[in-house]
Hints:
Elements: E1 3-6, H1 19-26, H2 31-42, E2 49-52, E3 56-57, E4 63-72, E5 75-84, E6 90-91, E7 94-97, H3 104-109, E8 117-119, E9 125-131, H4 136-152, E10 157-163, H5 173-186, H6 191-200, H7 210-219, H8 225-233, H9 238-250, E11 258-261, E12 264-267, H10 272-291
Parallel strand pairs: 9-10
Antiparallel strand pairs: 1-7, 2-4, 3-4, 4-5, 5-6, 8-10, 9-11, 11-12
Amino acid sequence: MRLLCTVLIAIAAFCPASPAQQAAKKSGxxxxxxxxxxxxxELLSTDLKVAVGDPKPSMFPAFxxxxxxxxxxxxxxxxxYFVSQDHKLIVKGNLFEMGQSPxxxxxxxxxxxxxxxxxxxxxxxxxxxFSDFQCPNCKEEAKVLRDQLPKAFEGKVRVYFKDFxxxxxxxxxxxxxxxGRCVFRQKPAAFWNYHDWIYDHxxxxxxxxxxxKVIGWAETQNLDTAKLGQCIDARATESEVNREIAEGRSLMxxxxxxxxxxxxxxxxxLPWPTLEEIIKRELGFQQTAKNAGEKCCEVxxxxxxxxxx
Length: 309
């Protein structure tokens, strides 16, 4: 196996440890020493909460993977490091294994079964979008995905939607995500109507009127409003939303919208010409790889029947 490592930030011994830290190292990974060093590397102020995870095996020989969550006023920022098994060296960057998709780790983490989707099953390009219903940039990206994508790449793209509400910034984003999953649970085909409606009416929605407006919209969709209201009140789909949030964090998301195009992560709202060019390049790359007889980069995410608008 041949590995390529990029964005090498730090390869250095930890700072000199105190006697207590040296004793801790004898029994394993010293999280306190690691946190102190990372705070210095990343210029993290003392008022920011830093949570260091346990080392886990990685695809990088002789290095473990360590995830760090930094809590900021704007939300959680995930960081990932590779730490040598003797705990003396730190690498921050991305790993690519020759012979497979450069985004194979992301593809393995993306779960598209039982997710709202539109487009062609088995399409050569699979786009997964993590979004927030209260996010203005997500609203703009949603218009691009819904209006431009189907016309420009008919039969060539499949889109999946995932919730990633930024609760510290957007107070009604998670309740809206829970309501959306309630709609999807009751009538999957109605989800995209909900998606389009809530972005169109984003400016009118507040935490205390969200449910009323959702129920009013549901009355126009022939949905069981009593059942929907019960689902919203009981937060019956919160566990589904939480799973999507956890998946996003495992993929190092720190904002919305974030798109994954055949596993390639792209952060922020992309203008249509940029997104169009990226998809064209992906289609061209796949065709070239196919003609060369390569099988490294096929997308094998599970698919669902297309939802009708």
